[in-house]
User: What shape does this take?
Amino acid sequence: MMNDWSDLPLFPLNTVLFPGMVLPLHIFEERYKLMIGRCVEDNRPFGVVLIREGGEVGGGATPHDVGTTAVIAGASRTSDGRYNLVTIGSERFRLLAIRDDLPYLVGSVERWPLSGGAVEPAQLQARSMLALFEQYLDLLVKAQGHRMEIEQIPEEPRALALLVAIALQVPLAQKQDLLCRPSVVDLLRAEQVVLRRERLLLEYISSSQTEQWEGGHSGYLAKN
Assistant: This one.
């Protein structure tokens, strides 16, 4: 857990990090090599925030206001000073202010934990979510040909809500919307809406692929 929240190094990425999510990173930009070196030396996390405007490489990235701290679980350094990291999402935060007097961004943030996991509405939502999520995983296999390696789907509402948020194959804007949900109940409800919509899409993709193969073509036209 992080103790000092007034001076959090920020890493804007085209990624939405959730608590409990594993995020491998390859650090090659000089400013982020400096940032990670300091984080490793001080044994402290950094904040991962989705880029609102700009790019990952080069300056000028503007981040979203809600992100997640990344704890460095493993780090190795190459001969030219690059870092290969394994990080794990830890605590959700809201960004209050940004400093840009260092080569990398530094934020003043406040903790924003996902609340309400133990209340009865969250437990009811979680029970109704389980079958829907399992169906989604099965449809992903049929539509995309691969299965996510999930040892066991948790029944505890907060853990289930975060797992679903991590596993959903949706655009980053939708991922960020899920990260910004104020409570476990709100997150589970939003995820159910997304899962029902994605189920219809995956069922259509799966049935279309079946129809193509049964009709004797793959959907591609050969050029003469």
